[in-house]
Design a protein that fits this description.
heterodimer, A: alpha+beta, 9-stranded antiparallel beta sheet, B: 5 helices, elongated, HUS1/Mec3 (chain A), Checkpoint protein (chain A), HUS1 (chain A), DNA_clamp_sf (chain A), Rad9 (chain B)
Chain lengths: ~280, ~325
Amino acid sequence: MKFRSKIVDAACLNHFTRVSNMIAKLAKTCTLRIRPDKLNFILADKVANGGVSMWCELEQENFFSEFQMEGVSAENNEIYLELTSENLSRALKTAQNARALKIKLTNKHFPCLTVSIELLSVSSSSRIVTHDIPVKVIPRKLWKDLQEPAVPDSDVSIYLPVLKTMKSVVEKMRNISNHLIIEANLNGDLNLKIETEIVCVTTHFKDLGNPPLASENASQARNPEQMAEVHVDIRKLLQFLAGQQVNPTKAVCNIVRNKIVHFDLLHEDVSLQYFIPALS
Amino acid sequence: MKCLVTGGNVKVLGKAVHSLSRIGDELYLEPLEDGLSLRTVNSSRSAYACFLFAPLFFQQYQAATPGQDPLRCKILMKSFLSVFRSLTMLEKTVEKCCISLNSRSSRLVVQLHCKYDSTVKAMVTEMSIGEEDFQQLQAQEGVAITFCLKEFRGLLSFAEPANLSLSIHFHAPGRPAIFAVEDSLLNGHFVLATLSEPYPHSQDLRSPELCRPAPQLQAHSTPHLDDFANDDIDSYMIAMETTVGNEGSRALPSISLSPGLQPPCSPGPHSEEEDEAEPSTVPGTPPPKKFRSLFFGSILAPAYSPQGPSPVLAEDSEGEG
């Protein structure tokens, strides 16, 4: 198993750092999947995560000037590593204004992802900072649980409002109740609702627009005004929103009524999918 | 008495001990039928505090060995508190806490069982600084020391905005390292102990073996090792303070040793609390008085007494010449 990569472009480096910061906010521990053409940050929907799952994908050639990998075997040319997300984002903190960044898989007493940063020092010579991030190599028999989740057949698909606005609304609602209702329709309306014995609070977002539907028949059968709702734990939504420091290029919310809410975001060329299950 | 605290209750117990420590310096620990009581009273007898933890608080609770009378004890609050000092650490790493009172050995034993998760090893960071980045560099190749970063950052956060040069003096693992900043108006010195082994294994970090810091002072041309009955950081502090007013500027004790005069650096004994799980000392040996805490002895041995007027313990390193 081998992995060596290098980033020299400052913009790519900053973008990669932002992605890593986002992942660190979304998942304490995650799986990094390395393939010849792409990198994925994966969080599988286990009970420990509260059923939340995440799938983040980026094309390696959009970031790395050098990228070589050799998977577990020729037929299974992939590497799955489990790591503490915060370690990667902390390591990349030192990469601001770096000349170059190298990431490679090493074995220093235990398997590590070694992040090597070349900095420009005061005396104009290079200074190297190395971070050894301990990782756990995930055996092949567990790979089946870490595959790309199937996009569910949603009842409603709608574009999200500005995430910063959504986050500040949800933050305030969190003080009232942990139980949040997300509902939307095919007319561009999205509502966030909190209902308690004493008070009901609803925030209405209008004219958000809906992505084009997959099939023509479906659009005729559904009443565009009809709401599809899902009840979720507000803290999970808040954690997702907290990870979005920058407003994405594209943000879609797919609701499967009473089952799951699926967020599909695009941050420039990095795609992020986040699934929050309905409260039982 | 034997009881086992698990999960979130370990932190609750820790918080109770923190609260009690604000009242008194001694803790009365008494296992009762209806629970474990922790009590304290302040020195002026104007405040009293008591926590009673019901048996249900514990995963296991045994007030007394059957057939025996229940025991109770009084201990130094400081000692008990040190076990529960870091509440965040308790929450993150401690799985269970076992407290037992042994009448035969007159000991209260507190055992913290920590989680061991192989993925949660620490990230290791290494940075190399080239010779050209130093104003002055004089070091023996291959020497490595390990010291507490948090304490060092205390000085860094002062020096960096003030744009002061930082000088570092160190010798060998186990000897203290001295960090100094200076300008025309002020100077600052931080003296930090270093581990006697430069690269501890990460698993062993719970109980590092520390050499009691033994700063070597150079008086005139021969080092006076006998000037100190015990060689811990307090002696160093006293030495620094007693040179004030004596013949000119207070000198930073030079720590360069002449070859061949290396005092033996034997690993210090574990602190009392750490020793509970694995008694390595001969039973019956009184606990070492000089070594109460993990780093520095804060209690001088009774034998220590400065002789007459303080002698000049450290030569001026910056004389008039």
